[in-house]
Specification:
The chain is mostly beta strands. The protein has no helices and 13 strands. The strands form 2 sheets. Strands 2, 4, 5, 6, 7, 8 and 12 form a 7-stranded antiparallel β-sheet that branches. Strands 1-13-3-9-10-11 form a 6-stranded antiparallel β-sheet, with no helix packed on it. A hairpin with a 5-residue loop joins strand 5 and strand 6. The protein binds methyl 3-O-[(1R)-1-carboxyethyl]-beta-D-galactopyranoside.
Length: 153
């Protein structure tokens, strides 16, 4: 699976980037993110959200945040009515400062599955109905070369 399979691609977006997920999210769909972690990265984050309002801030179905400072980890969470829920922290970090990566978010009916550089990393159970998720954001200490949306059939 690569960005070559994508139906929609966004190339070299200015960070922070927020844009629509073409057609919304459905089981079987895949989002591919190719980028490079900044050499001085403390963290970056990918957010799949229900809308793009900033005041009040839209709900975030998946907040995926690799963290490089202190004990390296990936924190996942959801934002509901402007409040963060319980963090799901994986004490494992497949990203390296200054290094290129490919992250794949696989959409399932009940979970998101995330893989990095070809290896499964984590699963995150939906806390917000999938059919409300329509915006993709990425921000923090990262460069993005391509975002690809691969439909489910
Ligand atoms: O820190 O943790 C995830 O649980 C918060 C951060 C917040 C999230 C959250 O401040 O930061 O990572 O989107 C946000 O507000 C980000 C940038 C307990």
């Amino acid at each position: 699976m690569s960005v070559a399979n994508a139906k929609h691609t966004v190339l070299n977006p200015v960070i922070p980037y927020t844009g629509p997920i073409p057609g919304g999210l459905h089981p079987g769909e895949i989002i591919i993110i190719q980028g490079t972690v900044a050499p001085d990265a403390d963290r970056f984050q990918i957010d799949l959200s229900s809308g793009c309002s900033t005041k009040p801030r839209s709900d975030v179905a998946l907040h995926f945040s690799p963290r490089f400072k202190g004990s390296p980890c990936v924190v996942c969470n959801s934002l509901l009515q402007e409040s963060w829920g319980k963090e799901e922290t994986l004490h494992q970090l497949p990203y390296k400062r200054g290094a290129p990566f490919e992250t794949i978010i696989l959409v399932h009916e009940d979970i998101f599955k995330v893989a990095v550089n070809g290896a499964h990393l984590l699963e995150y159970k939906h806390r917000i109905p999938l059919n409300t998720v329509n915006m993709f954001s990425i921000s923090g200490k990262v460069r993005v070369h391509a975002i690809g949306y691969i439909p489910n059939s």
